[in-house]
Design brief:
Two copies of one chain form a homodimer.
Chain A (H helix, E strand, L loop, with lengths): L1 H10 L4 E2 L2 H8 L11 E3 L4 H14 L3 E4 L18 E4 L6 E5 L4 E4 L5 H11 L3 E2 L11 H6 L15 E7 L5 E3 L33 E8 L1 E2 L3 E9 L5 H13 L7 E5 H8 L13 H4 L1 H10 L5 E9 L1 H15 L5 E8 H5 L1 H8 L8 H15 L30 E6 L2 E3 L2 H17 L6 E5 L4 E11 L3 H20 L9 H7 L4 H14 L14
Parallel strand pairs in A: 2-4, 3-4
Antiparallel strand pairs in A: 1-2, 5-6, 6-10, 7-11, 8-9, 8-10, 12-14, 12-15, 13-14, 13-18, 16-19, 17-19, 18-19
C-alpha cells in the first residue's frame, strides 16, 4: 500500500507495520469490544510525527496516537473505529532534561514510569515524581494528557504538567504556555503563559498530538509517613470522607488519598475462585459463605484507605497527631495506623502495629504489602499495583502484569463526586446494584483528587475470554453510566463507548468543541471520535 | 443613535449611556494612554448580555466587557481601541450560592471583594476567600479570568475557580467543566470536566463574556500566623527565594508569598516629596540623602516579605520552627517574625516583637500596619492595600483609594521568573536600570505564585497629570519589556500596549489563537484586540 511505503520513507522500514499479527496485537483490549487498526507507525522524532500527519491527510487516513498504549480500563490502545493507523510514540522516549533545583523533567511520550524512576535513581537525584498504579511500563505523558491521577500532593497530573509540545492536524508544531516563546525562562515552571491558555484544549482531546511536556517533580521530603485507615462498617465510608474533606481543606492531608472497598481489596489479594463459583452472579451474591471465608482469610475490612504525610519530622508528627484526633470521630473506624519510614525498617514494630489491620495475613505478606503501598505513595511505580486487575482472568498473569496478556476484562466507570457522605453513599449504592444485576463483584476505589472532589473508579472486572461476560460487562457499563448521568454524576474520563453516552447530556458544550475541531482538523486526521463526536 | 435605542429596550433607559461625561469617565486610566468608548451598557442578567451581543453584531460595533473596571496598572476599564461599547457587568452582582461544607461560592462578575467579605461575615460562615490587594471594590470574577493572584494557599485565582458561564460571540450560552451538564453534582468542585477543558480558552481572552463562575473558598483555619521577613542587603533577595522555593516545595509554606523592595515599601509608607525633589530623576538618584532620610524615618529594610501559615496549633508551630531554622541560613537576613493571631492581640508583646523590624515607627502605626497586613493574608480586602498606588500623584487620594481619582499613573510590567537567585537578580537589575533611565523610582513586588515560579510586578508609578511623565512611563514600559523579552522573561498579563510587544515573539501561538478567534467571532464583536491581535 502506497501509504505505508511513504511512511517507511519517513521512519524507516522497521518502524512501520501492517502485518496481520501486529494489527491483531494492537486490536487486543481489556474493554468488552476493541477495534482493529490498518497498521502501526513508530516515529522517533517530532519532525517524523509532523510528516506522518501530513501524509495521513493526503491519504485521508485517520491517525490514532498512543503514548505507550497502557490505557487499561479506558480502551487501551484502540482507536474509536477500525481502520486507523496507530501512531505509537513509545520509541520517542527521551528524557530531555531534569532540573534538580526547580524539580522538573522534560520528557517525551514514550518515557515510562519505570524509566524515569530508574533514571532518577541512577543519577542519584534527590527527587521523586507522582506515579500511577499502572505499573512501570505505562507512559507518564499519556496519563497526564488523559488527566489521570496518582498518589502524592502532585496527584493531579494535568495540573502538575505544562509546556506541551503539540503537532497540530495541519502538521505544524506548537508549544503551550511560555514554551511558545523561544528561550522563555519560565516555560518549565508556570503553566498558564499569557493570553488564552491552551493545555486544556490538548488534554482528553483530538486537537493535536502531544510530543513532549514538562512534568513537575518533588524533592524527596525530609520525613515521610504513610497512613492506613481501616473501616469496619460499609456505611462508615461516607462519614470518613466528610472528615477527609476537612483534613484536606485544612492542608493537613495534601496527598491524593485512595479508599478501596472490600471487593477491590479482595481482587488485590487473590483471584476469582473459579473452582468454587460459577461467576454468573457476583461472588458475594452467589456464595456469601465463600465470600466471607475469603475476606476473613485476608482479614479485609469493609473499606481501607491509604494516604501520605511529608515534611520535616516535626511537621509530620503534628499532622499525624491531627489525623488521629479527627479520624477518631468517624463511626465504624477500626484503626488508623501511621507508618513512618523509620518504623517500617523495624520489622518487629510493624508486626505489632499492623496486626489489628490485617490480623489474618502472615507477617511477611503484610510487610511486603505495606512496603509496596508506601513505595507507590513515594512515586515508585510497581508491577505489584497491577495485581488487582486480573480478578476474573482464567489465565495466569504475565510477569509485567499486563492485563491484556491474561485476557483480563476491565471496564471502568469513573464519575466525579462532591466530597460528601451523601454522594459517596448514593454512587456506591447505584454501582453495587448495577454490578450485581449483571453478575459482577462490586469493586470500587474512591480517590480524593482535590480538597472537595472524589473520583470513584467503579471497576467491572470480567473474563475477557468469555463472550457472555464481555456482553454483560458492556451492558453493565452502559446501564450504570446512564443511571449515574441521570443523577448528575459525570465521568471524568473514558473511551468512545463512554463518551457516546456523555455527549447528548451537554449538547452546547460538544457542539462548540466539534465546531472548533472541524476548523482545526477539517480532514479529520487526528483521532476522529476520540473524546469528540464525529 | 439606533444602537443605543435598541440597547435601552433590552436593559432599560437607566442602564445605557452615551453621555459625554460618562464616556469621559470610562476613558480615564492609570495607564499612560487610554481610549474613549462609544457608550456604556449595564446589563443585570445573562440573558441581557446575550441580547447585547446579538445587537452589537448586527450594528458591527465592538463590545468591551469589564467586571468592575478596576484593572489598575493593566489598562483599567479601557478597550484596546476607541469606539467600543463598554459592557459594564457591575450590576450583575448576585452571590448565587455559598456552600459552607464544600467551601465554594457561585458569583456574578459584579460581586466585589468587599461584598463577598461582608456577606460571609453577615451570615456568620466559617469561611474565608483569597483577596487581592486591589481593595474592597474590585471584582473577584474579573481578577480570576485575568489569572490574578492573592495571598493565601488559594493565591492562583484561575486555578481555584471553575464552572465558567460564558456568553459566546454568537450570543449563545455555554458552561465550562461539569457545569455543561444540567444538574451535575460535581460542577462546583472539579475544574476540568470531561473532554477538552475550556476554562483556559476563556481566561485572558476575547472568546466570550464570562457571566458567572464558581470560586473556591477556604474554611477558617484553627490556627493562623503571619510571618514577616526583613532583609538587610539588596543582594539577599536572590538567596531568600532559593530558600522559599525549598519551603514551598516541602509544603511548609503553602501561601502565596510577597516580597517588596525598598522603593515599594516607601510608596506604601508615604508619597513622593514634591516639595523637595523634581521627579525628573528617580528620587534615589536625584537626592540620595533625602531618600535615605525617608527610608530611615520609616525604618525600611532593603526587602521585606510576608506570608502566612495555617493549620492546627501544632502544625503552625512545627511550620514556624521549620521556617525560622531554614531562613536563618539566608545571608543578610535581618529578622524573621512570626505573629500569631493570639500574639497580635497582646499589644505589649507586639511592640517588643516588632521593634527590630521597624524601629522608627510609632507603636500604633506599626500595630495598625501589621493588623492590616494580616487581614489581607486572611482574605480581608482593605482600602489600605491601595495606599502604595498614589506615590507620585499630586492630588490627595480619595476615600476609596481609587488611583484614577488621584490621577495616579500606574504602568506595571509583570514577568514570570523561575524561582532562582540568578533570575531574581537579573530581572531586578534590568528593571532598576530601566526605571532610572527614565527617571522613576524602582518599585518591585516579587510574588511566589507556586512552588517554582515568581511573578515580578515592576511598578512604574508616575504623575498622570504630567504629559512628560506619561510619555516617559510609556517609553520606560516598552523599553523594559523588550529587554525582558530579549532575555526570555515573558509577562503573565497585560493591556494591549504590552501584548503588542509580546505577539511577535511567539508567532505560531498567536496565529493559532487568531485563527480560532476568527472562527468563533467572525464579526469581531467581543473585545477585538484584547489579548489577541486583530
Amino acid at each position: 500500500m502506497e501509504l505505508f511505503r511513504e511512511l517507511m520513507q519517513i521512519v524507516g522500514p522497521d518502524n512501520v507495520s501492517a502485518d496481520a499479527a501486529v494489527r491483531e496485537r494492537f486490536g487486543r483490549t481489556t474493554a468488552p469490544h476493541g477495534t482493529t487498526p490498518l497498521g502501526v507507525v513508530y516515529p522517533t522524532t517530532r519532525e517524523q510525527v509532523q510528516q506522518i500527519v501530513r501524509i495521513a491527510a493526503r491519504f485521508s487516513v485517520p491517525l490514532f496516537p498512543v503514548s505507550r498504549g497502557k490505557n487499561w480500563g479506558y480502551g487501551d490502545a484502540c482507536a474509536p473505529r477500525d481502520g486507523n493507523v496507530i501512531v505509537d510514540l513509545s520509541r520517542m522516549n527521551r528524557i530531555i532534561e531534569i532540573n534538580a533545583a526547580l524539580a522538573y523533567a522534560v520528557i517525551e511520550p514514550g518515557v515510562s514510569q519505570g524509566q524515569l524512576k530508574d533514571h532518577i535513581d541512577r543519577e542519584g537525584l534527590p527527587l521523586m515524581f507522582d506515579a500511577t498504579g499502572a505499573g512501570p511500563d505505562a507512559s507518564i505523558v499519556g496519563n497526564a494528557i488523559e488527566r489521570g491521577s496518582g498518589h502524592t500532593p502532585y496527584g493531579d497530573h494535568f495540573a502538575t504538567s505544562c509546556n506541551y509540545e503539540v503537532v497540530l492536524p495541519d502538521g505544524s508544531l506548537m508549544q503551550t504556555g511560555f514554551g511558545a516563546y523561544p528561550g522563555a525562562q519560565a516555560q518549565h515552571v508556570y503553566k498558564w503563559g499569557i493570553g488564552p491558555t491552551l493545555d486544556g484544549l490538548f488534554s482528553q482531546s483530538n486537537f493535536g498530538i502531544v510530543t513532549r511536556m514538562t512534568l513537575w517533580l518533588m524533592p524527596k521530603p525530609e520525613s515521610f509517613a504513610m497512613f492506613i485507615v481501616a473501616l469496619r462498617t460499609r456505611d462508615s465510608v461516607g462519614p470518613f470522607f466528610e472528615v477527609i474533606r476537612r483534613l484536606r481543606m485544612a492542608g493537613t492531608v495534601r496527598s491524593t488519598l485512595h479508599c478501596f472497598n472490600r471487593g477491590r481489596l479482595l481482587a488485590a489479594a487473590t483471584r476469582f475462585p473459579w473452582d468454587r463459583a460459577s461467576g454468573r452472579q457476583a461472588l458475594e451474591v452467589e456464595n456469601t459463605e465463600l465470600y466471607r471465608e475469603l475476606c476473613d482469610r485476608y482479614a479485609l475490612p469493609e473499606w481501607a484507605a491509604t494516604g501520605s504525610l511529608s515534611g520535616t519530622r516535626g511537621e509530620v508528627k503534628a499532622a499525624a497527631r491531627a489525623i488521629r484526633s479527627v479520624l477518631g470521630t468517624v463511626p465504624g473506624l477500626e484503626r488508623v495506623v501511621v507508618v513512618s519510614e523509620r518504623t517500617l525498617s523495624l520489622g518487629q514494630q510493624i508486626a505489632r502495629l499492623l496486626t489489628p489491620v490485617a490480623p489474618g495475613l502472615s507477617f511477611i505478606k503484610r510487610l511486603e504489602s505495606v512496603q509496596l503501598g508506601m513505595a507507590l505513595l513515594k512515586g515508585h511505580p510497581s508491577y505489584h499495583s497491577l495485581k488487582g486487575a486480573h480478578w476474573r482472568a482464567r489465565t495466569q498473569p504475565s510477569q509485567t502484569g499486563d492485563p491484556i496478556d491474561s485476557q483480563s476484562g476491565l471496564a471502568w466507570i469513573c464519575p466525579i463526586l462532591p466530597m460528601t457522605a451523601a454522594a459517596v453513599q448514593e454512587v456506591s449504592a447505584l454501582a453495587e446494584a448495577a454490578f450485581h444485576e449483571y453478575g459482577f463483584e462490586y469493586q470500587a476505589t474512591i480517590t480524593a483528587i482535590n480538597e472537595r472532589a472524589l473520583i470513584a473508579v467503579l471497576s467491572i472486572s470480567f473474563d475477557h475470554a468469555s463472550a457472555d461476560e464481555r456482553e454483560r460487562a458492556q451492558r453493565c457499563q452502559s446501564l450504570l453510566l446512564d443511571k449515574l448521568l441521570d443523577r448528575g454524576y459525570v465521568p471524568y474520563r473514558g473511551p468512545a463507548s463512554v463518551l457516546q453516552l456523555v455527549w447528548p447530556r451537554a449538547p452546547e458544550y460538544w457542539q462548540f468543541l466539534s465546531s472548533l475541531k472541524r476548523h482545526v482538523d477539517p480532514a479529520g486526521v487526528v483521532a476522529p471520535g476520540r473524546y469528540l463526536p464525529g
